[in-house]
Amino acid sequence: MGTWKWEGLDIKGKKARGNILAQDIKEARKILRGQGIRPRRITPPSVLEFDISEWMVENGYASGFGTKELCQFTKQLSTMINAGVPIVQSLEILSKTEKHPVLKRTIKNISTEVSEGSTIADAMKKQKGFDKLYCNLVKAGEAGGILDGILIKLAEHMDKQQKTKAQIKSAMTYPAIVVVVGIAVVWGLMVFIVPQFMGMLSQSGQEIPAITQFVVDVSNMFQKYTMTALPIIILFLFLMKKYIATPLGKRQFDIVMMNLPIFGGVVVKGNLSSFSRTLATMLSAGVSLIDSLSICGDTIDNVVICDDISMIRDKIIEGKTMYEPLSRIKYFPDMVASMVKVGEQTGSMDTMFLKVSDVFEEEVNSLVDNMTKMIEPIIIVVLGGMVATILVAMYLPIFMSAG
User: If you ran DSSP here, which 8-state letter would residue 260 be given?
Assistant: First the structure.
């Protein structure tokens, strides 16, 4: 991929020149024809114009873009369309200003497809990073002539999801760091400090208390089996990850996660919040309830909840209301199910599910706060107790001999 210089006639038949990004001369001609330009001369990029980031993207060395980059692109595209800028021109401007190499290349590919007559949704489906929800909402926005409004809703949806995930991640980071540091400290005491004390005690020839002997035995086990246990633990984690990647393993993992104390509530409410907001966004865009539920099922990572969404969809196809199967799901609150029933009766399902998502988000925030307040003291007490036990076990013989 490089910058090719061209000279020729523009769509009005006047002489023109310019630069385009293309992988080879064939692609350069194809892009120019799509823009109505008849090139007379195309000059390839020089060696000095070599773009290392483009080379990394072409060879698969660059990492893909995430939700943050996609959300920013969505907001910018919505603003430009709302301002009346043609879609192809909007995409070209965004591809030039985008700094993430993979997203930059993706926007350029979409621009090329659209300039050749493809719809934006179809062009996005061919690119990595645009899920089924995104493409279907863009398709609905194109069909209804409200693409800028749909993109704004998409950006808000992604922004909300990102904030919820960031909050959970932030809440778990501190306890995780404390646990890792605590384990490292205990391991260091057992492997390096305890043997030093034992050397001193063995020379004194005094009787060793039971608690001291217990700590010494644990220390000997650490010294003897640490190098053997470490590769076994790594192998176990690797095999566990492979097993979770299988359909059966994923289902069992999701069931365990949903039934964990406190954290299980965060998992369930977090997924239900994502489902409710996704469904509300789809319904407000004019997508049918059946299609919306199908897309929601594809965007939920939890297999158990995904199966329940498919069950609800099947019941609606059979002619039942959404409230009936929803009220039978144990982890779905009765109050929220009643809100859905009111939404069905008043014909305001999108508005009601938006409120439902807000309810779940508040519950997630509350659960995360409670979990953080509960986990941190427990971790500190447990690790502090372990370190205290080791220190008492080592100094107790000294105090006994002094007495």
Answer: S
